[in-house]
Amino acid sequence: MRKNFYILGAAAMLAVGAHAQQAKADYELVVPLPASIELTDGVGFLVNLNDPVGVTEHVTSAIPNPEGYRITVDADGILIEGGSEAGLFYGHQTLRKAAGANADQTVEFPAAVITDEPRFGYRGMHLDVCRHFFPIEFVKTYIDMLALHNMNVLHFHITDDQGWRWESKKYPLLNEVGSWRDRTVKGRAGSGQYEYGRYGGYYTQEELRDLVQYAAERHITIIPEVDMPGHMLAALAAYPELGCTGGPYEVCPDWGVFEDVLCLGNDETMDFLYGVFGELIEIFPSTYIHVGGDECPRDRWKACPKCQARIQAEGLTASDGHTPEDMLQSWCTAQVEKFLNAQGRQIIGWDEILNGEVAPGATVMSWRGTEGGIKAAGVGHDVIMTPNSYCYFDYYQTADTEGEPLSIGGCITVEKVYSFDPTVGLNADEAKHIRGVQANLWTEYIHTPEHAEYMVLPRMAALSEVQWQAADRPKDYDAFKRRAAHMMQIYDKLGLNYAKHLNQH
Ligand code: ACM
Ligand code: ZN
User: Which terminus of the chain has fewer CB atoms gathered within 10 Å of its CB, N or C?
Assistant: First the structure.
């Protein structure tokens, strides 16, 4: 059983011998490094954080950022002040991380004043549970990993070509048919070789509601993604009438981008989308709902009389280098946006939603580099930066791939992640629209929880500093490596698997 790092456990009685060397907390080793650490004169305070006698806390309006906090340590005790409960949570996290692997013992906290707040309000990690399915217990571990790195959003990718992963009571075939595939590609995408056997699964609504609560207790919001109108083969296998050709379709056994997508000329498809998103928002209370939008080929729409009739009826014409089919996708996104806005929700979409007319209130998730994000910020849209040049944690993390598990390709080292500046080249008005940073974990080549941990740790530590530290703080990778090594001791303590490539450039 893994132990939550930050949830206070039962008090541990610990006999410290008179001459025993007392473990000492080191604030300079905390990831993400706090904004200001001022060591003060005087002796510090000895405490076991599992039995926190002498540790007091309160929320105060003197700390304007709800996620900000101040810690004051002196001989009398430790005071944690937070801008809200979330700020208090991050204050506790800093103390535990300063104690590191000794966090369950009595530790000496040096006298200090620590003042801290995050740079970005959106600090995310994504998880694809479609290409490979992960037990709900691992999703909880993943949420714990986010919390350990002061992250506050789990972008949960729960539908794709290869499997529909959440329970729909309204459309039961999404689970009976869409959650299972009969074969899975062997080796690289497109190899033409398959492993045969039923593979898949889905989370029940009850499990998901419990997960939402679990995340909320750690100040994490789960943003679910239903990826549409492409990446929909699992749904099409269940309801072939929603595709342009009528099928038959198969829950996809391979990785890649596929021509069969939702038929947007069919009114039933739009009703299906409203039904699905309507059901989704009853499970997930997040303000933001991710509507996907990436990698949607136009081939079927070009040849489909219904889709062409929709283009005519809605007066969708080529403009600004966008085709009528581009405009058809943006029409669909705008319809779904209207539906979700009426329920008090906002949409996020991958940067392909910039092709055509961007849905007016959409937040753009920039994945094909930072260009889409820069363009969207320039025209006043909010942006989450998640470029595949810095933030794709399914890529290799070392150029020397011998001995590494098979990966989708590319190379993004820890140092590369650490070097990312999400607002470089933007003016102040544009920079305001960069709401946060996220890394993505696509799981075509990741079959097990241990492998997923290996791919994200310790790159997640580097990402957390990009998300948390002030823009004007100088980068110092050597100092970060010392903090990352300290973090690895915590990973060991928690039984988390991680890569050891800190010296790769
Ligand atoms: C993506 O990587 N297709 C968003
Ligand atoms: Zn069609």
Answer: N
Amino acid at 167: E
pTM: 0.96
Q: Is residue 198 classed exposed, middle or buried when 0-12, 13-18 and 19+ CB atoms within 10 A define those classes? A: exposed
Please tell me if the CB atom of residue 408 comes closer than 6 angstroms to any atom of ligand 1.
no
Evaluate: CB of 294 within 6 angstroms of ligand 1. yes
Q: Evaluate if residue 18 carries a pLDDT over 60.
A: no
Half-sphere exposure of 39 (CA within 13 A, CB side): 9
Measured in Å, residue 367 CA sits from the centre of ligand 1 at 6
Indicate which atom in ligand 1 lies nearest the CA of residue 388. 2
Which listed ligand is nearest to 367 at the C-alpha? 1
Q: What is the mean pLDDT of residues 319-337?
A: 96
Q: Is 231 a catalytic residue?
A: yes
Residue 15 gets which letter from DSSP? P
Q: Is the peptide bond before 387 cis (omega within 30 degrees of 0)?
A: no
**405: closest CA among 90, 94, 114, 132?**
132
DSSP state of 351: G
Whether ligand 1 lies within 6 angstroms of the CB of 350 is answered as yes
C-alpha span between 261 and 245 (Å, rounded): 10
CA–CA distance, 211 with 143 (Å, rounded to integer): 9
pLDDT > 60? residue 13: no
Active site residue 254: no
3-state SS string over 367-423? CCCCHHHHHHHHCCCCEEECCCCCCECCCECCCCCCCCCCCCCCECCHHHHHCCCCC
- Reported as a single tens digit per residue, the pLDDT across 358-408 is 888 999 999 999 999 999 999 999 999 999 999 999 999 999 999 999 999
**Averaged pLDDT for residues 111-137:** 98
Q: Is 291 exposed, middle or buried (0-12, 13-18, 19+ CB in 10 A)?
A: buried
* Residue-level pLDDT at 5: 65
> Coil, strand or helix: which one is 260?
coil
Average confidence (pLDDT) over 131-150: 98
